[in-house]
Specification:
The complex is a heterodimer of chains A (27) and B (91).
Chain A: H1 6-26
Chain B: H1 8-24, H2 29-52, H3 63-73, H4 78-85
Helix pairs in contact in B: 2-3
The chains are: A mainly alpha (27), B mainly alpha (91).
Chain lengths: 27, 91
């Protein structure tokens, strides 16, 4: 389990959004 | 929570990556903190651009700028930087 603060979660959200856009731009 | 379009794989990689950085900089929490701040600022600026639709002539922080900021933060940690590049659309 992970002990994430709201700021940690926000970083995870930003990174996964970037990865999603990357996938979208490659397909 | 992630956007519905974000696949669990992308979400899981993001979680592992954030954890990796957190653990790598356990002795330098200020570096980890700065990394979070860069992403937070990027996200905030993206939202502002969306709301103003570019009317203020600003496009916010670009992904290139995010990458160079993170690069100077992660000096000497090439593996972390290479992994970060994998999240960026234009890497």
């Amino acid at each position: 389990s992970y002990d994430f603060t709201p700021l940690d979660s926000s970083a995870v959200y930003v990174l996964s959004s970037m990865a999603r856009r990357r996938r979208a731009s490659q397909s | 929570p992630p956007a519905p379009e974000t696949s669990p794989v992308e979400f899981d990689s993001a979680i592992s990556y954030v954890n990796k950085i957190k653990n790598r900089f356990l002795d330098h929490p200020e570096i980890y903190r700065a990394f979070l701040e860069i992403l937070h600022t990027y996200q905030k600026e993206q939202l502002e651009v969306k709301e103003s639709r570019g009317n203020r002539g600003s496009s916010g922080m670009t992904e290139d700028e995010v990458f160079s900021k993170v690069a100077s933060l992660f000096k000497g940690q090439e593996d972390l930087l290479a992994e970060f590049g994998q999240f960026l659309p234009d890497a």
